[in-house]
């Protein structure tokens, strides 16, 4: 493979870039972790509408102090190979972004740590130092994820064929299917069934093996 070939690598965050689901961690802090986790799992499997699931889960966080983000961030772990993949992608001249149904309040810290080029997530509304139980701005759902990879590709004078997209949930499937290299990463069954490529080992560096193998074919 020509390592100077320009690409755009876009990842989901929760259960892909990181091991955890941040909304579940926030739920733990609010004392409703089990309830939120059940809704998260159903949404990731595509059994319920993502926007409705997000609204219902975020509502349960009402009243949490905004210093909760520091506590939750301390509980987050990058997936094996995540930092190495991002470093290698940048060395190849690629841009790297994340688009997530998670939250800027956590993901921005992750992005700074690994020098991501692009970030799009949801914002949790805060008033008087407490979460309101609502989000601010457009909800990052499957359509916005798809439109975002198109936008970022255009910004870099690339086409969707130059995009590598990976994620694990139903919300990620449209962008995975649209990308030149679309990868279901340790994904839910419906995503595995619909994705062009599967990676079921929790090592993100193996993404490069898939990309390079396809380039050599």
TrEMBL record:
EC number(s) given by UniProt: 3.1.3.3
GO molecular function terms noted in the UniProt entry: L-phosphoserine phosphatase activity; magnesium ion binding
Cellular component aspect of the GO annotation: cytoplasm
InterPro entries per the UniProt record, alphabetical: HAD-like_SerB (IPR050582), HAD-like_sf (IPR036412), HAD_sf (IPR023214), PSP (IPR004469)
Pfam families noted in UniProt: HAD
GO-annotated biological processes: L-serine biosynthetic process
TM region positions: none
Catalytic activity entry: O-phospho-L-serine + H2O = L-serine + phosphate; O-phospho-D-serine + H2O = D-serine + phosphate
Pathway note: Amino-acid biosynthesis; L-serine biosynthesis; L-serine from 3-phospho-D-glycerate: step 3/3
Residue positions of the active site: 12 (nucleophile), 14 (proton donor)
Protein keywords: Amino-acid biosynthesis, Hydrolase, Magnesium, Metal-binding, Serine biosynthesis
Cofactor(s) needed by this chain: Mg(2+)
Family, per entry: Belongs to the HAD-like hydrolase superfamily. SerB family.
Protein name: phosphoserine phosphatase
Organism: Lactococcus hircilactis
């Amino acid at each position: 493979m020509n390592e100077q070939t320009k690409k755009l690598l876009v990842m989901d965050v929760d259960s892909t870039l990181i091991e955890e689901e941040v909304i579940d961690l926030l739920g733990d802090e609010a004392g409703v972790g089990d309830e939120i986790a059940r809704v998260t799992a159903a949404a990731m499997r595509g059994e319920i509408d993502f926007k409705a699931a997000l609204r219902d889960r975020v509502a349960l966080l009402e009243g949490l102090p905004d210093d909760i983000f520091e506590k939750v961030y301390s509980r987050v772990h990058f997936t094996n190979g995540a930092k190495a993949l991002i470093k290698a992608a940048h060395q190849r001249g690629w841009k790297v972004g994340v688009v997530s149904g998670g939250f800027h309040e956590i993901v921005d810290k992750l992005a700074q740590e690994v020098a991501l080029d692009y970030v799009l997530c949801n914002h949790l509304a805060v008033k008087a130092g407490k979460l309101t139980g609502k989000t601010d701005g457009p909800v990052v759902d499957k359509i916005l994820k798809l439109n975002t990879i198109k936008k970022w590709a255009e910004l870099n004078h690339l086409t969707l064929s130059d995009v590598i997209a990976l994620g694990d949930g139903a919300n990620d499937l449209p962008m995975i299917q649209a990308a030149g290299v679309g990868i279901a990463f340790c994904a839910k069954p419906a995503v595995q069934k619909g994705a062009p490529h599967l990676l079921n080992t929790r090592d993100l560096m193996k993404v490069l093996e898939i990309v390079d193998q396809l380039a050599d074919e």
